[in-house]
Records
---
Amino acid sequence: MRATDDAPDTTAEQPWQHTQDQLTRIRTRTLAEAGDAIAAIDTCLTTLDTLRKDLTHRPWTRSPSPRVPPVTGAETVTRHATATSKPVV
């Protein structure tokens, strides 16, 4: 109670109300961000599931392996020698 009248003192409630309002805003923002993150994860999981089904049910065909050209003496690169070794060819 206040000293000037019998009304209840509300000044002590104001700091708590400010904190409670902040917590409510943080909760709302967190729920929105979590919802966005869950939606993004759900999209990724759907894409992965589609890829898994495609890889499981598509007939596999053998593709030719790439040919690696042989290394000739002209293509050999000489590296610098270290203090304890000779030049490496």
Note: The radius of gyration is 36 Å.
---
Amino acid sequence: MESGVNAWTTWRRQWPGAGFWLSLLVFIGIVIASFLLFESSIQHATTALVHGLVQQPAYQFSLAIVVILLLFFDVLLPVPSMLLALLAATHLGFVGGSLTIFIGLCCGSVFGYFLGAGYFRLASRWLSAGDKQQASELANKLGTLALVCLRGVPVLAEVSVLAAGMKGFPLKSFLLVTTLANAGLAVAYAYIGAFLAGETAFLLIIFASLLLPGLFLLCRSCVQALEPVLRTKK
């Protein structure tokens, strides 16, 4: 037992930051494993639940609440978010579907962020100073571009918000970027569910998730580039 503890201590000294990486991989591995193991059964259950709700009179409000709750827990459970959003838009219409999906996606993003942050605080009891320093450095390296590009990609979208919370990504920037990306996704989902179907649907979803945050990043870059010029003129 003592030799095992000594080996662990020696390994952590030789590889500073390894404890953080191991903690991150274990947590993300659990999330991915849940998707691989339970995705099919939860997808069938979700579809049956939605179809059961729409048979009831005045089902719109109940359906909206169920969709929001399922998208909220999407970061933990292998909820078929794309299928769920398309079903919501089909039955709630473009406007109602957009609002419902947007609220659900935003709630899920915030929940995933704080879940990741809470897990890191819990794991910090076993992390060394080097591990925490590694986490701080990774928080600086995790740019908004990664959050934007992964927002419309199944599984990776959930992993990215969890990682953002664990790495201490600035909350204000996280909320701004994910809200813009979620708005684009919600509109794309609602449009596809209400008016469109086909092979181009997934590409449209990815494009929509990139559009609003991309415009924001472009405008911010232009402002930052023009700041020195404006200061010189003054």
Note: The longest helix spans residues 81-123.
